[in-house]
Batch of 3 targets.
Target 1
Amino acid sequence: MPEDAQQPADEAPYIRLLSVKRFRGIEDLTWLPAKGVNVLLGGGDVGKTTILEAIALLLNPTNATTLSDADYWQRRHEDGFEISAVMTLPLSCGIVEQRKSVWPWEWGGDGAKLPDLEANDGQPHDPVFSVRVCGTTDFDLQHEICQPDESFDHFPVSVRRNIGVVRLSGDDRNDRDLRLLQGSALDRLLSDRTLRSRLADRLGETDVDGELKEEAKAALAALDERFVFRLLPSQLGLGLVGGSGFSLNALIGLMATKDGTKLPLSSWGAGTRRLAAFEVAALHQVDHPIIVVDEIERGLESYRQRILMEELIANPSQVFVTTHSAPAVNAAVGAALWYVDAGGKVGSLPASVAAQQKRDPETFLARLAVIAEGATEVGFVTTLLTRSIGEDIRRHGIRVSDGGSNSEALTVLRGLAASGLAVAGFADNEETQEGLWQQVKDKLGELLMRWPIGCLETNIIPHLGDDQIEAFITDPEGDAGERLRTLADRLGIQDKSLAAILAATDDVRQLIVGAACGNPPADPDAPNDQKKEWKKHGQRWFKSTAGGAELAGKMFALGLWPDLSPQLLPFVNAVRTAVGLAVVQTVN
Amino acid sequence: MSDATVAEALRSAAPLVVVEAPGGCGKTYQGASYARDVAPGLGEGRLLIVTHTNAACDVFAERTRGLSRRVEIRTIDGLIIEIASAYHRALGLPADVGAWARRDPNGYAVLADRTARLLARYPMIALCVARRYPIIICDEHQDACADRHAVVMSLKKAGSMLRVFADPMQMIFTGTAAEMAAAEQRWADLKNAADRFEELDTPHRWANAQPALGAWILEVRAALRDGGQIDLTGALPAGLTVHYADNVAQQNMGFRVAGNLSQPIYARANLQSMLVLTGHNDRVMALRAFFNRRMPIWEGHVRDGLSGLVADVRDRQGNAAGLAQSTVTFLGSVATGFSPTAFGNRFVAEAQQGCAKPCNGKPHHLQAMARHIVETPDHRGIARALDYLRGLVANEPAFSDVKFDHGREFAEAIQLGRYDDPDDGFAEIARRRTHARPKLPAKAISTIHKAKGLEFDNVMLLPCDRANFGDTKAARAKLYVALSRATTSLLLVVSKAKPSPLFKT
């Protein structure tokens, strides 16, 4: 047993650095994936699937892959492509036992680095290997290991097989893995090399002539006579014959029994087929293969998506998953979330957004996520944007999402803004964390609407005219009683009529603001019961999604828009621009 | 029987097995048969045999034929070069580490030092090597310097099982006193660290020809190792002859015995096979004269004269006079008769003056020789000059006193002219020499040092006196190496006037 040497032997292999150059739709991508499950999010056609296929090609357990010019960026096969990875590998994969010695590099945080005799950091060493696959200009694949002396040696199939890659692809190609096609997962699992010839022998013995109907026999006899006449080979009969492009094994597929009948697995539902193919692939693999799952939700109900995601997370394997599914994102607790933007950049969604992932997974699946700091803001912004765009904003990929609170929204916005995911924000100004808010503002510009001071209520209510007070207080059902009650309570009067209230206060707007915001009594020594009671007042006003929508509706109905337009219009236009709509002068 | 215990120890699960293996006791047989037994069961891993010479590699390769997938055989320097090549950029070395090491006078030592440090600092590298080679057999481990030993030990630390064969009595004592003490300490430490320590003690090499001589050599080895004397007073074993005669030569490194005492020596030299051993290079020359130049000198694998010439050529390129001077120095080390006074000075002067003066006779020939260097003032010119000299010696009576003692080395200097770069040429010639394994002549005169690893039926060792064999560890080892070369007969020419303290007479 080595004394102080590290023991990577039982560790699962994993990719530390992935670099893809000129492969399919990706011109140049560099990415440092996480050790466990990596969930890749992002819109269509941004290259998520290509990343998965690049990994699968790099670790391809066979050499039987043909390339076409579509595998090259812009079909420019004359430039070649290269997929390289720096990997932590357990020595049990046999990489150092090849014909030629293979040597480790040291992990340098962002790539493989050479050992350094001068460095004296005393850090434990983190050995990695550097591997790549190149598509040559003449459509050949070259798997290679990059040695620390910058020479390249062959990256053998046996080592790739021992590292292992299990693939659950998004398209219906998984049907292939349920058949005994050469190189399919089922073929590799059974690895019965002589089955084909044994079956051919058996089929050759089949008496086909005997099965023919009488008329058919007569036709065959007539043909035989003709052959004799023409001096062609005669004594004709029928038998099973092979031919090029025809594979006996392709006819053999996995069967399962359903309701007493044996059926090919390929006739089951899409989700079952996928999971079946996945299990076939996983079973004959080494302990912890690298797993790539394209569109985890395909054919799977929400609960199966959740179960699959949770199983993947519990597994020590490194996993790459793409998804557009909210349940899958929601279940991906402990996984690393990544956002692939339209430029092919992979941005990290930091762990700080985990709460948002639980709260509203769709945030990460939208074309533009608007993080509103609370329910009121969600209702308000949804109404405002719907009004501007003139139709359901979801049709434009806009998701207005509840950020949870002012500070939570800030955390989420910071995390998302750094990831490359398109994001907007709508928040109060509580005069806290100014520096961090400023950083977000610098990044998002007008996409962040943060009041210069205060909140929705404090910014809207002061604009009310005297004649608008009653209409403002009255809720959409035409009832004003509960809200008047909160005002009367705050004034300490029994009579909750508007007249009595107006008589008891010299600033009714400020009074309404206090009630709508649930502000506590001015006296800090007020009884706790009263503090609690006053806090609840907000719920009677706009502290809900519906309340926010009502507030927006009233802003327009009562003609307050011109007062608020300077604050809100730049935000509306920034959102419109982000989803490809023209800038407008106002919102009607 | 130690053979059985050693075989069992090798096959045990002990991580470190150390076998003290005197020459001729079957260590190669033990090592190779262990390799044959264990290698097929190693799975993906391989068994590595680490030797010190290419010749030893060949012997093991022959004995493990058919196992090349499972058994790799390398010199320790070959292994070090492979590791250092992979990390040459980290070690600050050029890409072709092997060529660099051959070229640099200190190359192999620097390489071993840096590789040992690399493995100590990066156990991950040792771990990969150990994974590849779960079992390592070290042959002749007494010859491993501190850094080479450290390389091997870091592989053990990383998990390789180690099987070490060593004969501390065959250590090469060429370094400083401190280095010798360190080497002894390493051996002591290795024995202490061993999970199993065994000693081979059956003199197989002598079993057929002269068993009594074999047994005596092992006895003598123990005596020398343990600080004792070789007792020549009692009955001597069959095959051993002691001839008492003093070296009465006047010159420092000469050799001569009183007329009446030379006869038994000459008589013995007439045997079909004979290896004449002595302590110093210069005395090898004297002995060649003593035996009337009838016996060739065994040149071994070392070419001190040629490597000096190559180093000079590098520094003196374009300087004809300087190159001529180097040529004279080289000839002094490989031949007799081309002395400065007889030929050398005139030869250098011709080169200096551009071979301008018309002349005749002997000077004319020297001028023609020097002209090659004037016209091509580099190693190629020297090669042509030497080739010209070879013709003169064969054909011109004036040059008939020039005798080539190191004929191979002289021929290699001429071969050097075929290469564009003298360093590359020297490296290539050295490589061919080690792989070609020159056939042993039936008779030879050699230093003890160069005779390491050789076996001859008949051996004589002379002179055995105080100057050559004082009471030092180095002398004890040297004496044992000399004695153990003989398989049938051994003649010792022992001094009574200046007795060696290692003999009891």
Note: Residues 561-578 of chain A form the longest helix (18 residues).
Target 2
Amino acid sequence: MKSFRIHKGKVAPLDRANVDTDQIIPKQFLKRIERTGFGQFLFYDWRFLPNGESDSSFVLNEPRYRGASILVAGKNFGCGSSREHAPWALADYGFCAIIAPSFADIFANNCMKNGLLPVTLSEDEVSAIIERARSIDNYELTVDLERRLVADGGGFSASFAIDDFQRHCLLEGLDDIGLTLLHETDIAAYERKRSARIG
Amino acid sequence: MSGTLFEKLWDSHVVREPADRPTLLYIDLHLVHEVTSPQAFEGLRVANRRVRRPDLTVATVDHNVPTTDRSLPIADPIGAKQINTLRQNCQDFGIQLFDIDSAEQGIVHVIGPELGLTQPGMTIVCGDSHTSTHGAFGTLAFGIGTSEVEHVLATQCLPQNKPRTMLIDVRGELPEGVTAKDLALGIIGRIGTDGATGHVIEYAGDTVRKLSMEGRMTLCNMSIEAGARAGMIAPDETTFAYLRGRRFAPQANAWNEAQDHWKTLRTDSDAHFDHTVQLDASTLEPHVTWGTSPGMVVPVTGCVPDPAAAKSESDRRASERALEYMALTPRTRIQDIQIDRVFIGSCTNARIEDLRAAARIVKGYQTNSSVNAMVVPGSQAVKRAAESEGLDRIFRDSGFEWREAGCSMCLGMNADILRPGERCASTSNRNFEGRQGRGGRTHLVSPMMAAAAAITGHFTDIREWKFK
């Protein structure tokens, strides 16, 4: 898995709550059997008008946010379907971290498996970032996983909590299937106990 | 040992419990479908890994299959390729597949219980968020992403952090015409779409005890719409009666042994939950969603709310945006909202009991001339059962389309979608923007409410329905 240690990048504000995975990657793009190439379909119904033209009113289409690699959004980001195509699309588009007041469980899990860091900050901190991303040109943040810190070098700084083991896996880019397979003896022992019980 | 049902299920599946890492849990049943699995199988091939327990893995095709004539080839080449990929993967890795032409095909969360694969005490996962459905049988069942699908295929285990617990205690008799769907929508309306994030819900109380297995599945199915990791109900005689004799359920002596064990799967009276929610079912009404999130819901006697009355600035903006998308104005009576389409289907409400309830409403009536209505049974077995009872005839005679089994217009991956601007009364689980088709407007309701709307052309309080 791709590792994540520290990332500095431009911030795009998506000031909406409950952004669901159907918005992040609409269903018509789930038929592909690859893991790659989903970035072009990210937020498709918001980025593109029904005639296929770019919708200039959508924040990611504003020239000032071109090249953004950090997305900041409202609470309960990634709710709905378990489709991992959502983090695949966000990462493929170029996002490295998502900042929100809260994330849906399955989505946050899926992000971690793909080196995409979900950062949970308070509502006030998220509002402050959104405000700055709107008012300051080329507003950048540094997301430091090692120090669990988000800062802009201009006075804003906030620390975030993350599960120790998930942080360790992200920092090292560990393959967690490989880690589980190291415990073959334990799995086999459980299976013996299980088959004695079930018959 | 004293504990909740969840804790008992969790504890009995611990393979490893290191202090500084997530617990490694054993998975008893892994359900697989065509959409979230191809990249997982590819990952196995790349790493030269095998499927550890093909005997605990079962696959079907449901998400993108057409619901029209199955004797015709699949018109969508990309969808067909995805289905063919699952066929190849099941063949290569030795996994049982209930394919499009099999008598057992259907929505993964309908066929698991129906075949008796889903049994109390199990851990069940699937690359689909509505896996919570299986919790109705006293299982720990949750949706996972494709990386985790690959993890379970390779190891039959998943590293998991222990979720918190929430008790939803429902008392009182559900009034006539108020269903498990209305109960689920009522709960989500109350606690919000993130009200149970990080939690496993146990539904309990006399109301839940009186629900049929179909009703319990509807309730557990919608747990994810409240943000929960899983939802569950302790098994009882209703559960055992449903499972007895099903194809993969324990048979003969094994049945008695299993049942003795299943009876121990209940929360002890002194067990502790992190949160408790209490609800009085006797005051519930049929519910209708008005917005673009399942928490945006009101009783059928209510009105579209005014965003000005929202609790917070962020809720106000979300409501305004939802009303704009839904083309609704504040204070419109729910029963004045006209609809264009009706969809009776999905893993939430496409079981035989759901179809019986809807058929009772439509019997002797014709669908409104401005409404296009369809019924998509949850499985081929549900379809056959309905046909043997003559339900298909009732639906067809009143103007409904009668389709083959699949997820269909719940998520619109196949050809069954709303056109832009069309408004649909749907028995599914998500009213997100564009979920049923770009620009489509979804209102979530129970099967009876959807059926009544198909007849009258607008939302109608089924408590006042004149049955024919």
Note: The CA atoms of residues 15 and 97 of chain B lie 28 Å apart.
Target 3
Amino acid sequence: MLYINSVRQEHRNEEDMIQFTNVSKRYPGGFEALKNISVSLQPSEMVFLTGHSGAGKSTLLKLIAYIEKASNGQVVVNGKNLARMKRRGIPFYRRNIGFVFQNHRLLMDRTVFDNVALPLVITSDYPQKEIGRRVRAALDKVGLLAKEKKYPIMLSSGEQQRVGIARAVVNKPPLLLADEPTGNLDPELSREIMLLFEQFSQVGVTLLIASHDLALIRRLQHRMLTLSKGYLVGDGVAN
Amino acid sequence: MARRAMSKHGPVRRNRQLNPQRSDKSDRRSHDKAGRRPSVIVRFGAYFTRHLQMMLYSLGKISATPFSSIMTISVIGIALALPAGLYVVLDNLQGISSQWQTTAQVSLFLKKELDRGETERLIEQLRSKPEISDVTYISPDEALAEFRRISGFGDALNTLDHNPLPPVLVVHPAIGQGNAAAVSRLVDELRTLPAVDIAELDMGWIKRFFAIMAIGKRIVFVLGALLALAVLLIIGNTIRLGLQNRRDEIEIMKLIGATDAFIRRPFLYSGIWYGFFGGIVGWLIVHGSLWIVRAPVSQLAILYESQYVLSGMNMASSLALLAISSLLGLFGSRFTVGRHLKEVEPV
């Protein structure tokens, strides 16, 4: 059993943001989506995750988000061993992760402001004024400050995606997971989104971005993990 | 650990808005600008604000679908109006019967052959008894006149060649009303007097009336319990539909780290609102019905020479109705949400 990934085991280290050690995921029914994955991401790293459909990209993100549990091996995120996670602890764990989805998953019956405010509203930690301040800061960052009172349906798909990104970063999570964030966007908009992600990386956010837009990834020159049929078959700067 | 890694990386280029601030102790906490945990007062204020927002938000959700909300609320109101209405009916009957209760009396139908002197002696004898407070004499002529007046058989009575009615002594016992055994002992004693033909306790039918009332109370209780269960199920079902419609929203909430308690809260408030408005509708139905029967009831009261006025639900029972209906709403939705929330997991 000599896979490329088993070599990386040696690099295990306590300071990783994300650390997979011999992780496998078998779904009920027997389908093995991930096979013996070992990989680690450093804080403020920006990493792309590629591979064909069904290669295991989504499953890998789901393991980190604790939507799925690993069948074998150990997943440690931000110093937390997910195998020891209790049900009660899941919401508090997820508050440290920002999610960006391909279909952005905004709440259509609420304004842009309310959508972005959601991660702050679910805690009781922020007084109303503070929420307003942070939401506007996040909207400003994605260039949508003027649209805070609009409903998502009134925005273009690029703008909707940016609202989704504002929501993901409004509570300043140390880790951002993005699943095909540019899947529905034209190349120009895709590049804008990626530039935004690079800015987050520069201020210390760890990003893991699943994408199959290889042309775009190659231009950006970041670390790229390649999955194929559940195996990690490539890890290095794309070229 | 990652946090240590951050500090080792040193002061990375900071962006005020997007730099993730880390805590030393727990990642559960959020911090103000200076990195301190918000004070208890701030957190309590925010928590309170959040509840108020949630209350109004769920109220807004209910009014956003007025037709189906009104349907649900009406069904709840009708279900609540039945036991509440029966309660009001029983309450009124109890009010009427308490007037009768103070007038419990024993009628002694005397033998007809008794002459005036013997009757006088009997009255004196009875008045001297400590367990009797008063004795009233009704002569056969008085009795006939009263019967003629009340019954309306005046013409038929005129055909009689003599008065068939016996003289009657109405005895008012001095014994307290609660002491039914003492009253019936007195009746037994009076019955053995040689001058007395029949001794009848007017309490007899009042007792039967109270027995029927007791049954009525039980029926209200059973009906109330069944309909409360119905209200629970109606609200539970309404909330379940709401949960299904907002499945996607719940998944997103779970993904961004909302606790179950937070996700539950708007549904619980919706349940309380449904129950509360259902209670108001129930109250209106009860009082509307009372208003409808008020005129015929006072007509009936006049026939009985009474000033009786129907009483509705007083402040205490009205508030109790609203409190019970709101609680039913809370429990109905809590039960449903508790059961279904675990099924909705992000995928």
Note: The two ends of chain A are 28 Å apart (CA to CA).
